[in-house]
């Protein structure tokens, strides 16, 4: 009885296998999946690099414009004896305040954009809910602060290289 059932099972499997185009073992499927995940991680890394670069350029442009518009004010502060540390602290505090105000709005708009993209890809057959790990928010905030501080360096160097006589002239 048991031997006959096993023979019947293997006979059916042979018939099914004859119709199969290819057969993959667990290790081949796992290797293909790992290869796909590695490609996805690389692609996501490239996307993050572009996002970092774009954010740097936008923040750099904003801060540089802010410093250029305030060149006379900053030069006057230097002329009356304000030290560099205070000027750097003032500019950094203003930039951090701008970041603190804009980060919640940016996070909220990012969530809305992700929900819009995922809902556009969802169909009757499947849905793709948006799930963002709480640690992702921490990484986003830290990345934005790092971009902010890096973007500030060229503007601060410009402040330190000001010719006070020329910068404080009446235009």
3D structure, described in words:
There is one protein chain. With 171 residues, the protein is an all-alpha fold. The chain contains 6 helices and no strands. The chain starts with a helix and ends with a helix. The model has no long low-confidence stretch (mean pLDDT 83).
Binned strand content: under 5%
Secondary-structure element series: HHHHHH
Biggest sheet overview: none
Summed up, the helix count is 6
Give Rg in angstroms.
30 Å
Averaged pLDDT: 83
Low-confidence stretches: none
Produce the secondary structure layout.
Layout: H1 2-19, H2 26-69, H3 71-79, H4 84-121, H5 134-160, H6 164-167
Helix pairs in contact: 2-5, 4-5
Features:
about 170 residues; mainly alpha
Task: Put the structure in a nutshell.
With 171 residues, this protein is mainly α.
